[in-house]
Amino acid sequence: MKKFINKVDNILVESLSGFAKAHHDLVELHLDPNFLTRTNKAQNKVAIISGGGSGHEPLHAGYIGYGMLDAACPGHVFTSPTPDQMLMAAEAVHADKGILFIVKNYAGDVMNFEMAAEMLPFEHATVLTSDDCAVVNSTYTTGRRGVAGTVIVEKCVGSLAETGADLQACKALGDKVNHRTASIGVALTSCTVPAAGRATFDISDTEIEMGVGIHGEPGRRRETMRPADEIIGDCVEAILMDFKTRQLQPSKKHEALLLVNGFGATPLMELYLIYNTAAKLFNLHNLEISRSLVGNYTTALDMAGASITLCLLDDEIKQHWDSPVHTAALRWGK
Amino acid sequence: MKKFINKVDNILVESLSGFAKAHHDLVELHLDPNFLTRTNKAQNKVAIISGGGSGHEPLHAGYIGYGMLDAACPGHVFTSPTPDQMLMAAEAVHADKGILFIVKNYAGDVMNFEMAAEMLPFEHATVLTSDDCAVVNSTYTTGRRGVAGTVIVEKCVGSLAETGADLQACKALGDKVNHRTASIGVALTSCTVPAAGRATFDISDTEIEMGVGIHGEPGRRRETMRPADEIIGDCVEAILMDFKTRQLQPSKKHEALLLVNGFGATPLMELYLIYNTAAKLFNLHNLEISRSLVGNYTTALDMAGASITLCLLDDEIKQHWDSPVHTAALRWGK
Q1: Which among A18, A228, A268 has CB closest to B5?
Q2: DSSP label at B85?
Q3: A-chain residue closest to B229, CA distance
Q4: Which of A73, A206, B279, B309 is the most exposed place for a label (fewest CB within 10 A)?
Q5: Contact B277 A302 (CB under 8 A)
Q6: Are B118 and B125 in contact (CB under 8 A)?
Q7: Is A215 tagged catalytic?
Q8: Do B229 and A275 touch (CB under 8 A)?
Q9: Protein fold of B9-179
Q10: Which of B82, B77, B64 is nearest to B151 (CA)?
Q11: ipTM of the complex in this document
Q12: pLDDT for A226-245, tens place per residue?
C-alpha cells in the first residue's frame, strides 16, 4: 500500500484539518467528536445534516455551505459515524426549524443516525437515500444502497431549506428526489482501505465488477472487461429497467439529470467518454439530458471505476438543482 | 490495461464530445482540426488560447469560459497539438486585440505554437509556463517544465484580459505569475498511456519518483516510500530552495497561494492531508497561505501522486485570482 499518510490512525484528523484550513471561509472543524459545520451558522431554516464513513470525499463535508448542508459527521474510513457526532452537530446548527438527517442506506449509518434522532431534543426527520439499483440487500445493507444520487438529494433539499421551507417539505422533497433517482457503478480495480493495508477484493487485469458498491462491496456479477460502450450500455439498461419496475419509465420525452461519477482513480477523460455514450443511450429512451454533472463526487478511496446516476427531473427538482450553491465541491450561481 | 475506452484512436474525440455536450453552455467543440472555443465569443479583449497534449484534464478545455481561456487546442494523449489547430482556434476567437498563447514549456508544444504564431495574421504574444522546479531540462524539455502552475497563469491572465487590457499587459502578468510560481510533483505509480497499453515506467510497491513530470518523465530521483510528512517536507524544501536561488525568498511574512494538485488517482482525502502539512511548513518560512486550491487540476491520466505549487502573491495577482471565473473546472463569483 502506497498512500500519502503518516499514521493510519491520524489520516482522518489530518485530512479534515487540511480541508477545514483550505476552506475556512466555508467550514469549521470540531474534533472529538468529529463534525464540521458552516463557518457562518444559518438562521431560520431547517438544519440539514449528513454523514457517513470517510473515504467518499468530497461526500459529505465538501457539500457544506450555502444551499446544501449545515453540517457533516465523518466516520472513520468506511465506518459509520457515532451518535454523539450527530448530536453535537445538531446542537451546533439547530436553527429553530428542526433537523433533517440525510443518511445513505447502510445498516450502521441507519442505526447510529436513528439512535441520535431518538435522543434529539429538536423536531427532526430523516431522508434515507437508496439510489443504487444494482442489488437489493448486500454486505452492509438491507434494501438498496445509497450512493452518488445522495449528492442530488443533498443539493435539492439544501436549496429548499434555504427558502425557509418547513421540515416536512424538506423531507418530502428529499424522498421524492431519491425515489426518482437510480445509480449503478462498475469497478475496474479494488480500493485499498488504509487500516487494512491491502485491496478490499481481488480482481484480475481482465475483469470488472458490475454493480459494485462504494465500499467495494460485491455488485451483480464479475464480468470480463469489454469496450466501454458495452459496459455503459449495460449500466443504462439496468437503470432503465429499474425505472420500468418502479413504473417511472417516461412514455414521452422527459428531462433528466445525468451524473457520471468517478470512484477516485478514473481520469476525467474516461468519465466524459462515459457521459458521451450514456447521454446518447438515454436519449434513445425519451430521456433528454438537460442537466449534467461529471467528476469525482462520491468516491471509493482509490478505486478505478465509475457510476452512472439518472434523476428524472420535474420543475421543482430543476429549480432546486439550478439554485445557487456555495460549497467546496459544488459551486454555482453565487 | 483496463480503461473505459472503445478504440484507442477514438478516445479523444469521444471524450471531447462528452465534455462539449455536458458543458454546451460554456464550450463549443470543433473537429478536424480539433479545438474548443467559448460558446459565446468574447468581444473587445485579448483572446487567450492554450493547449497541449491531452491526458491532463481538466487542463486546458476545463478552463474555457468567462475569466479564463477563449479557446483550447487538445493534442492526442501526451502529444503536442499541431499548428493548424492553433491557427483555426485563433481565427475563431480573435476579437481585435490580439492573441495570447499560454504554452507549457515542452519542446513539441513550443515548436508548434511558434509555427502557428509565425503564420498568424493577428498581433500575438506567448507566455511560456515553466513552474516545475524539479529538474532543468528533461525528456521533452529544454529548461523547466510547465506543470500545475499553468492553471494559476491561465486564471490571472484570463481575468486581466476580461478588463480589456492590451496584449502586452496580459503577457507581462502571465510572465510575472509564472516567475513567482514553483511546483514539484511526486509519483506513487506510473500512468498508462492508452496507445501504449502499459505503464510508462516501472516503479515498485515501495518506491516513489520524486520530481516526476506530468507525462511520467523522470524527476530528481527514485526514493523509498516514506511517511507523507517526510515526502511533503522534501517538496516544500525544493520549492523554498528554488525561490531562494531565484532571489524570491520572502524576508518577512508574505501571502501565498498553495495549490495541491492530484495527478488523477489520488483520493481527495490524501490531497487534503498533503495540504495540511504543506501549509504548516510554508508558514514556518514566512509564507502565509491566504489562497488555496486542492484537487485534480493538472493530471497525468491515471497516475497516483500529487504536486505542490506555491505562488507568491501580490495585490495584482490576488485581484486576478479572486475575480469571477466561470469554466467547467473552476467557477466562482459569477
Answers
A1: A228
A2: H
A3: A6
A4: A206
A5: no
A6: no
A7: yes
A8: no
A9: Rossmann fold (3.40.50)
A10: B64
A11: 0.98
A12: 999 999 999 999 999 999 99
